[in-house]
Amino acid sequence: MPATPVSLIERIRSDRTGSDWNKFVQIYTPLLRRWLYRSITHPADIEDLIQDILTVVVTKLPEFQHTGAPGAFWAWLRLIVAYRLKNFWRQVRRQPLVGSIQFEQLASSLEDSTNDLSRLWDQEHDKHVVATLLSEIRHEFSALTWEMFDRYVLQGMPPARVAAELNVTRNAVFIARSRILRRLREEGGVLLPSDPDDSSVPPH
To answer: 65 lies in which domain range?
Structure first.
């Protein structure tokens, strides 16, 4: 029997210096940069804080315990971000505004999973990670398989129409969807919000 694929996070646990860690950095750096830009005005501070957050993540990753709850990894990571934001505030002693929310309040909001701002972080994280991982695994599938998935799942076309336009069976469309979502689950593991289905895959 073929070996069960190991998710990205599990591979990083085994080797925190290789290409898989670089892939994690590539996934999360744009997301962190986009959010930190809302509260920090100096680009150099943003980049320093991103490196600080990633250093804590790679150091603490062996301690992360997946509870089985959807979004457990991002909840864990969000608390690290909040802690490092507070630490940054203590160091620089400046408090720029984020809309009507002050910098210190932003960090505190991220610690509360029921806070509206915290939930917004979660939503943006889920969309970003799913879209990025899909782009990472796309090369593993034939052009036709991806086209069926793209039209059915990403564009939301009815499977009968996809089948007719691509001259395939409806079953082939369902199989393409199943194969790619299964591979997404294998690669994403705890990074994903939950067991991904069509509703959690971002449309074009």
So the answer is: 8-200
